[in-house]
Amino acid sequence: MTATLVLPTALREAAGGAPELEIAEGTVRSALDLLAGTMPLLERRVRDEQGRVRPHIRLYLGSSDIEDLQGLDTMVGAGSRLYVIPAVSGG
Amino acid sequence: MTETTLLIGTRKGALVARRPRPGAAWELGPLELPMSEVYGTGIDARGASPRLFAAADSPHWGPTLFHSDDLGRTWAEPGEAPVAFPKETGTTLIRIWQIQAAAESAPGVVYAGVEPHALFRSEDGGLTFSLVEGLYNHPHRSEWVPGNGGACLHTVVPHPTDPERVLVALSAGGVYRTSDGGTTWEAANRGIQSYWMPEDQRFPEFGQCVHKVASHPSFPDRLYAQNHFGVYRSENYGTSWEPIESGLPSTFGFPMVVHPQEPETIYVFPLKADSHRFPATGRCEVYRSQDGGKSWTALHHGLPEGDYRAAVLRDAMCTDGGEPAGIYFGTRAGEVYGSPDGGDHFEKIAEHLPDVLSVRAVQLS
After folding, report:
1. pTM tops 0.80, yes or no
2. Which residue of B84, B107, B214, B287 sits 20 to 30 Å from the alpha carbon of A67, by its own alpha carbon?
């Protein structure tokens, strides 16, 4: 069973144009670790080289910010949707 | 026939301008890498075809390094991060400020100066880089502080003939140099002033806010520096410095450029003060010295008349290395100017761009 990673428009080019990607069940961290192997360019847009989510990005599992759950250790269950949400910032 | 390529880094992307032959009109290409802040641009002209670099960063997606092997028509980046701190440092790359190819004596070597203060070295032409640990672990590191732009290593000056010697400048840490390929580094700031310190502490061993250092390949031990207040010259690769600012309207500024054929000819863009970062005379003027800093002349032929309020940043002025030499600069008003004759006459190459952060140029036969 798989879950879904939902990408903002700005990241789709790094995913070969896909708006969504299938990811394996497990923690958010394990999903991103797998992504680092298959789509490293996409993964390093989301996390820095120390494995920290970049400060202007939030990851939401369904309607919840993972920072309000267990952070990168939050479990991503089958059928759930993990959203990459960039901050509304800049000028 | 000589073609000139001018790479322009802005706050929201990069552009390439081309002049197909001397005297022809400039052709400005499309804006690439949109919404990326391109503080670092570089051109490695050592190979059969030049490699262009654009260090792009985004508050959202972090920093990366693009390269182009077709003069900016297409850009690529490796899948793995080309510049990244090792896990054991616990440090995150914030920005790549400087991309500088080494001299012909070190083929394939390219340096990256980054924020936070660190130097990276590539041996594969700029595709992958490794941290220069000798500088990263320097005992002074804990006392380096950020300048207004950040804790950046913004200047890399490889020695033109000795690949073991490299000089760097940090804000605010000052000038450092190595003579053993980066294993050990020594501060090289004697004579450079930190004006903001108490009077008896204005010439520290390190901690100066050096904005840019430049050298000439024919005189490797001669250096010129634009400091945070102060313009300096060294005849001994940074062992000591002496001021060369008499005749300038202000000693504050960011860029320092050396003419590619004339080692005594240098260019700066003075700003009024650190608290008033506007052109020192209120006009858009480049200042040139043709005697190694003994005297200075304002250059403004072809530049905007009247009041001008836009600054020129540390890497937003360059030469194309050609003969006759082209001199170029971009402003925070989004304009780019070029001179085909060493600064005697300027023309506008681009306008209405995002503010210009960096420019690099090369003449190609």
Report:
1. yes
2. B84
